[in-house]
Design a protein that fits this description.
The chain has about 180 residues and is α/β, with parallel strands linked by helices. It has helices at about 10-20, 35-45, 60-65, 80-90, 105-110, 125-130, 150-165, and strands at about 5, 25-30, 55, 70, 95-100, 120-125, 140-145, 170-175.
């Protein structure tokens, strides 16, 4: 079973965690704010008619320790993205893939700031459209932006993840 770490328990993080759990993934949802984790726990209890596997954790290192894929849900600002990628890169096992939702940042530039540029991808989507009304239908196209050095198995795993959530993934190689 693939383990997915979702970093940030705001609206997008909660939606991703519940959607991934419904799709059969083991999910660890991390946030440093206990109040956000409490809201996530309540949302999972209210939405769940079956057993969802969402584990709530309060430290990034606990979320990524055994993760195959980490998706950050931090603001789409350069400083925020660089900080979270730096943390993920240093705390996660070498096999872990880092996926970052962004419309404004270059995945080539972000990935080059890690020790695993071949395992970093961007999800080119406005995060508000994922967690907003209609997102439960999953009919949208998700663009996965990779670098020229991204490993094929990385693109495949991330595309399959979004496909299992009901989206249509398209992989796009970017050079800048």
């Amino acid at each position: 079973m693939i383990t997915v770490a979702i970093i940030g328990a705001g609206p997008l993080g909660r939606w991703l965690a519940l959607s991934a759990a419904r799709a059969g993934y083991r999910v660890l949802l991390e946030d440093v704010m206990p109040a956000k984790l409490a809201i996530a726990s309540k949302a999972a209890a209210e939405m769940s008619t079956d057993q969802l596997s969402v584990e709530l954790v309060s430290a990034v290192e606990d979320a990524v320790r055994d993760a195959d894929l980490a998706i950050d849900c931090v603001p789409d600002e350069l400083e925020s993205k660089l900080e979270i990628l730096w943390l993920l890169d240093r705390m996660a096992p070498p096999k872990m893939i880092i996926a970052t939702p962004t419309l404004h940042q270059s995945i080539v530039d972000l990935a080059s700031c890690t020790y695993r540029p071949e395992r970093c991808v961007a999800i080119a989507v406005d995060p508000r459209t994922l967690s907003g009304p209609g997102s439960e239908n999953g009919s949208a196209v998700i663009t996965i932006r990779t670098t020229p050095t991204t490993l094929p198995e990385v693109s495949t795993l991330v595309a399959e993840f979004w496909q299992h959530l009901g989206f249509t993934p398209q992989v796009e190689v970017t050079s800048s």
